[in-house]
């Protein structure tokens, strides 16, 4: 409903014009009062008056115009508010981005400074190491463990077992080995040891050539290092294999004149006469099982003689290494020995021969389950 003030403003436009000849005119207040007093009560009909007299009302087009103007005013205010909000938001985002860029610049400068310090320290360490080794070269203790024992026996009453540095004759490198000085007279250079299954023997060719593991525990010395020791002039070496079963039964197999061929032939093994209590698993029971003179094989270098496959127990085998848990050994159509096999697994099918294997060592016709083994070499007397 329109207010009285609005009606007063609109009355001059709404009232019909009067003749100039009239003696007087009504005031707006009088007209309003008269209209208000004569307005019919809501719900009542006019009781009298001149027929056809028009009541005072606001035309619809004026109402629409007023509403439209008010709407335009509100929309204009809203647009101004949105523009102001957008400007403040963009400024806030710009300020945040500038602050982040400043923080990143600070962090970048700090990282650069730290990298410079690390490079400086690394250079100092390398220079110190170079100076240390140039001034104090590492001295070897002997050509092999047998030579170390012979050299120390005259000055030391008891030589302890442990890690020593050897430099085989006619080689240009020194390396560490574990010497057993208490077992069967001492002087043994350990080339392989399995005790607790901690070291994984599932290795590639390069690892078997260079060696891996912990010398004080499970390890494989490396074909190249063993070959350097065995290739010394005027020397002969024996191989000793010490075995212990799960029920703590001990046994051994020994070979004299143990040799390895060179790397170009894949380090083939050469064994002399056998002696021991565990049986000659290297040579097996017949020629088809003989691993003597076989080259070394690994999962990625296959020299096992199964070309394209061989048959074991009526089943075809393409790779002896794959059959033996991807370990390396001197396989010859697989054979009966693999001291690098996986540690004993009671859930594994024994017919698959994936564990440490020395098939000729048996109890009641069944091969012993082997929990530990050590392969070691020692010099033997020569005619020279």
Give an overview in words.
The protein contains seven helices and 17 strands. The chain has two domains: about 55-135; about 145-380, Gamma Fibrinogen, chain A, domain 1 (Gamma Fibrinogen, Chain A, domain 1). With about 375 residues, the chain is an alpha+beta fold. The strands form five sheets. Strands 1, 2, 3, 4, 5, 6, 7, 10 and 17 form a nine-stranded antiparallel beta sheet that branches. A two-stranded antiparallel ribbon has the order 8-9. The chain has helices at about 5-15, 30-40, 60-135, 145-150, 205-210, 225-230, 320-325, and strands at about 160-165, 175-180, 190-195, 210-215, 220, 235-245, 250-255, 260, 270, 275, 310, 315, 335-340, 355-360, 360-365, 365, 370-380.
What are the SSEs and their pairings?
Layout: H1 4-14, H2 28-38, H3 60-135, H4 145-152, E1 162-166, E2 175-180, E3 188-194, H5 205-210, E4 212-213, E5 219-220, H6 223-230, E6 236-245, E7 250-255, E8 259-260, E9 269-270, E10 274-276, E11 310-312, E12 315-317, H7 320-323, E13 337-338, E14 357-358, E15 362-363, E16 366-367, E17 370-380
Antiparallel strand pairs: 1-2, 2-3, 3-5, 3-17, 4-5, 6-7, 6-17, 7-10, 8-9, 11-12, 13-14, 15-16
GO cellular component, one term: fibrinogen complex
Coiled coil: 97-131
Domain Fibrinogen C-terminal: 136-381
């Amino acid at each position: 409903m329109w207010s009285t003030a609005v009606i007063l403003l609109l009355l001059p436009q709404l009232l019909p014009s009067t003749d100039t000849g009239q003696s007087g005119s009504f005031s707006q207040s009088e007209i309003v009062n008269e209209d208000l007093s004569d307005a019919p009560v809501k719900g009542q009909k006019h009781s009298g008056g001149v027929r056809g007299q028009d009541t005072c009302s606001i035309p619809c087009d004026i109402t629409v115009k007023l509403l439209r103007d008010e709407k335009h005013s509100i929309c204009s205010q809203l647009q101004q508010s949105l523009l102001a909000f957008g400007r403040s938001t963009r400024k806030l985002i710009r300020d945040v981005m500038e602050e982040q860029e400043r923080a990143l610049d600070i962090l970048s400068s700090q990282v650069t400074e730290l990298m410079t310090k690390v490079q400086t320290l690394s250079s100092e360490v390398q220079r110190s190491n170079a100076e240390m080794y140039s001034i104090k070269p590492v001295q070897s203790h002997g050509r092999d463990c047998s030579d170390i024992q012979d050299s120390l026996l005259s000055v030391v009453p008891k030589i302890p077992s442990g890690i020593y540095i050897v430099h085989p004759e006619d080689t240009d490198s020194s390396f560490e080995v574990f010497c057993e000085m208490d077992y069967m007279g001492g002087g043994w250079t350990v080339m392989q040891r399995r005790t607790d299954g901690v070291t994984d023997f599932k290795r590639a060719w390069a690892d078997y050539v260079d060696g891996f593991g912990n010398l004080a525990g499970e390890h494989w010395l490396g074909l190249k290092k063993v070959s350097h020791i065995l290739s010394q002039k005027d020397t002969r070496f024996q191989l000793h294999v010490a075995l212990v079963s799960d029920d703590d039964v001990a046994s051994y197999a020994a070979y004299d004149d143990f040799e390895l061929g060179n790397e170009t032939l894949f380090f083939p093994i050469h064994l002399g006469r056998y002696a021991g209590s565990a049986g000659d698993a290297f040579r097996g029971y017949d020629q088809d099982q003989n691993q003597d003179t076989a080259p070394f094989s690994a999962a990625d270098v296959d020299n096992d003689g199964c070309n394209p496959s061989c048959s074991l127990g009526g089943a075809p085998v393409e790779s002896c290494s794959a059959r033996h848990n991807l370990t390396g050994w001197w396989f010859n159509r697989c054979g009966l020995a693999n001291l690098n096999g996986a540690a004993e697994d009671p859930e594994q099918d024994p017919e698959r021969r994936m564990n440490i294997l020395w098939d000729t060592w048996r109890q009641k016709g069944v091969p012993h389950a082997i929990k530990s083994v050590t392969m070691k070499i020692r010099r033997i007397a020569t005619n020279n």
